[in-house]
Amino acid sequence: MTTNAEPTTSAHQAGTVLPRVGFIGLGDMGGRIARRIAGAHFPLTVFDRRADAMAGLVAVGASGAADARAVAAASDVVCVCVVDDDQVRDVVSELPLRPGSTLVIHSSVLPQTMQGIAAQLAPIGAHVADIPVSGSRPAADDGTLTALAGGEPSVVDTLRPLLAAYCANVVYAGPVGTGSLLKIANNVMLHMNHLVAVEAARFARAHGIEESALIEAANVSTGRSWVTETWGLIDDMLLDHPLRGTAGIYAIMSKEMWHAVEISRASLVPMQLTALGTQVSKSYFQEREALVGPERALDGSARG
Fold first, then answer.
1. Tens-place pLDDT, residues 229-268
2. Burial class (CB within 10 angstroms; exposed 0-12, middle 13-18, buried 19+) of 171
3. Which entry of 35, 36, 183, 288 is annotated as an active-site residue?
């Protein structure tokens, strides 16, 4: 699938009738994705508990809804991008989905949450897909996210024109729940890479090497990873995410490691390093907040 530098789709250009899309959850990633959908000219209805988040989407052409129920009533495809499993279940319980409508969960949740939702909606004939995304803020803004898709192949194929508004790649994982599993596996690598890089930076600083020199070296040698290539992005999220300054920020930024450990306990798959990562991640995040926060305050900026 090709990258979409501008938020327009070939379907729109060809005059294809586009599905009515609903989007619930306009947070750090959801707001960016919804903006891409609006820019691609899909009829879009949005809802978020924060009025300012909704106002930003209404300003670019979306319709604001009074609640989640109103989103579902106005939509053929309902996308949900909220914080965790409990919020996903709460939102889904409110939705008056119709036979033939499609529910897309972009939140990173446990596979059993998705399987339970699919079983709940099967009797009414609604389709379900779990499609968490990967790539973070810059990719969401540019429409170059990667979609990790679980669901019936025909359902995922039907969603591809919509996904093209904000994703450059769609990786099909299998039945409902496997998109979530693939996101968890991917983010175990992401989070562990981050912890290792933070530790390496601590080592370098302690011995008189500038952090910037370490990152420069890593990015042209064998220490390179997505974390080092986007160094500073995770720091920015700690400082300007909607959950910044709350305990929730640490949970949301390490939840896939916790999910992996929880799932592996049941399946008896050893995940010793990941389990260690869950125990140290909060202190490592706090170390970065203490180190980088004052610097950003002085220059008055975060890359965001």
1. 999 999 999 998 888 888 889 998 999 999 999 999 999 9
2. middle
3. 183
Q: How many CB atoms lie within 10 A of CB 100?
A: 10
CA angle (302, 294, 252) in 5-degree steps: 60
Cβ count within 10 A of residue 22: 31
Is there a catalytic annotation at residue 183? yes
CATH architecture of 182-296: Orthogonal Bundle (1.10)
Task: Express each pLDDT in 89-106 by its tens digit.
Answer: 999 999 999 999 999 999
With residue 22 as reference, give the H or E element that holds it: strand 21-24
Ranges for all domains in the chain classified under CATH 3.40.50.720: 10-174
Residue 154: CB atoms within 10 A of its CB come to 9
SS3 category, 47: strand
pTM above threshold 0.85: yes
CATH superfamily, domain 10-174, is NAD(P)-binding Rossmann-like Domain (3.40.50.720)
What stretch(es) of the chain map to CATH 1.10.1040.10? 182-296
CB of 40 within 8 A of CB of 7?
yes
* Angstrom distances, CA of residue 33 to CA of 27, 36, 38, 165: 10, 5, 9, 8
- How far apart are alpha carbons 285 and 291 in whole angstroms? 10
Helix and strand numbers, DSSP H then E, in the chain: 15, 9
